Amino acid sequence: MAKKKIGKIVFLIVICLFLAVQLYPVLWLFLASIKPTTELSAAPFALPKSPTLANYIKIFSDGKILGYMWNSFKITAVSIVLIVFLSATAGFAISKFRFKLTGRIYAFFTFGIMIPVQITLIPLFIFYSRMHILNTSFSLILPQVGFALPLSVMLFVSFYSFIPNELIESAIVDGCSPYRTFISIVFPLAKNTVITVASMHSIFIWNDFIFANTFISEQAAKTVALGLKDYVGAFGNVDWGATYAAIAVSILPPMIVYFALNKWVAEGMTAGAVKG
Amino acid sequence: MGILRDRKAFCVFLLPGLLFYILAVFYPIEESIRLSFMEWGGIGARKFVGLENYIHMFRDPVFYTAFVNNLIYLVIVVSMQLIIGLIFAVLLTYMTKHVALIKTLYYVPCIITTVAVTQLFRSMYATEPTGLINQIINVFGIRSISWLTNIKTVLAAVSLPEGWRFAGMYMVIFYAALISLDKEVMEAARVDGATDWQLLIKIKLPMIRQIILLTLTMCLTGALRGFDIPFLLTNGGPGNVSELMSTYMYKKAFSSNQYGYGSTLSVFIIIESILVVALLRAVMSEEKTLVKKKQHAGGQ
């Protein structure tokens, strides 16, 4: 009995240790952001002795971070609407229409999961600069939506497979057009899939660095991830406090989305692995 | 297979998504392939050079460095994600309370932007002021190491954050697979006197083989496209010591304006990813037929 108890305690310690490794950096970030700069350089890993909001006041007073966040918000919101709309409809076409091609088209969509996003950078950069649309929201929305489609289409198709064909058939018999059937019957049923797709991709898109770093160079068009890098540069190695505060503010929105909707977010990310 | 047969409605539903997907994903692939046979510095006319870029690539020592580095990066990241993920998923199956909370918290690192992750690790690796990792090794009497400039440690140092970031996610996936296993089989084995360890090695792990292979696919393609953290932490430096395929491609295209050669490297990355996935899929379908055969034999 005693042996079992010791085993249990060791087990709990191991679980908590891993939890600490996973969470400590994040907690530390928030703690570091409320430390005065002097404390940060003297004892960077101790608990804050005299917590202060000075770092936050500093980053909000120049207002840059709010502009970055607004840009990220715009891009995320437009992308999410497009992703949900395009994948819900394409998934419906693949899943509920009886044509020979549907299997092939589905395979074509899932093929995209293998494609690394970096390979679009050169062609899109050239395309955008020729069209003079570098530094626009569109330049980020296009690849974000394109690369979100494979997984989203997969999630919708796998949900639609649970909707019985008879339901659709009876709607058609009752005189509904396919469009009406989709809008008033199928799409409302897919609420959970919509939340999964939207919450997961909103986190991904908000966090994007690589597209923004390539297609955005103007100060006014910068997104949060990019602005963060800029902050670090601007304050250099001197003012870490402000940097940490900026990071803390910028990771807050995805954290809120995640903690509010974590069931759906986790479902989407897990599905990516299991169905890929 | 669906039931609707309205061709016009089919196109209305399918085409917007399909066209967007082709424009955003396949047009760039096609352009990359085309550009990989050209020489172009960003202005002026493109010059068709045939296979010259490819020949150049196979003679480029940095390409080989990046390729080998990418393999090491891959091994570190994948083994961290799979092994840590699996161990903690197994441990978690013994927990009865607070599982949902712990799962939620383990996930947190992968919802943070890579720029923030990079900053976190940069300060943990730091020597001045002494970062967390150096403080820990100092306790054991080892002198501080400047992880990001030391050529022996830098590659591991840029790989570690990526492994850390997703370990929790893979744990959640494995956990879901483990708890969905048929309980009766476990009970039967227990009655026959199997220990927990035997149960794990001989029954549970073989039963979630498919999931392990699937996550391996995801892990591998994820690691092959590793970019953000190495790029931000060291940008391949010092020299090319921590250069990966994607950071090298980025450098060639956007710092040296060699769009043609950069595209050649892109094409190589695409081929690499497709090959890995194809290989794993072949292994998986073989497994599937094997399982089917076994079940078939068992049934007779």
UniProtKB/TrEMBL annotation, chain A:
Keyword Transmembrane belongs to the record: yes
Main localisation: membrane
Membrane topology category: Multi-pass membrane protein
CDD domains in alphabetical order: TM_PBP2
Keywords: Cell membrane, Membrane, Transmembrane, Transmembrane helix, Transport
Family: Belongs to the binding-protein-dependent transport system permease family.
Protein name: Carbohydrate ABC transporter permease
